[in-house]
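Handout, section B. The chain below has 206 residues.
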Amino acid sequence: MLKTFLAFGVCIACIGGTSAAEPEREPFDDRYCTTCHGTDGRGNEGVQAPRLAGMEPWYLRRQLENFRADIRGVHAEDREGIAMRPMATKLTDESIDDILGWISSWDYIPAEATIKGGDPLRGRGLYSACAVCHGADATGNESLGAPALVGQNDWYLVTQLKNFLAGYRGAHPNDTYGAQMRTMVSTLRNEAGILNVVSYINTLSR
């Protein structure tokens, strides 16, 4: 099914002669998403592209808008965010709507547990702070802007928690939710804490 999307190569070539209010558009090419996130939207650990299938549309919209507005993916050490930002920079509200509608057609299949070395019993205690927003069962809470954690790629959760802890994500003054996450992740203290809490989240998936 064809969707409207901005073909980035064409946009770059035409940027000098196209009004910003009326960007040149071409039919959506799903390779822009599936090349990294997979044809079934289950994610790709090799490029740290997370599972999109089943992700809440309100959360995905916020992240695409943050990438587009240079709120996310701007820190020099956020390699994955830097790779994603150019893909969102030229998106319009209409094309984001198209992408969300397309992604909603994918079947949701929870990601398999892959990480090793974490202690879920210790992680259970650490997760109590996370549960305030993400829920005791990690299924998320839209009213608090907190996405589901259960079923997401555990390697992606580990990477993003490390990024929050190091200040690579959530440092932009307009990233309100990111700032909240940085504060909460500080309670994990180090990589061991991150592995423990994600290991516990994996038990909720099962």
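Note. Residues 1-20 have pLDDT under 50 and may be disordered. Compare this with the example in section A.
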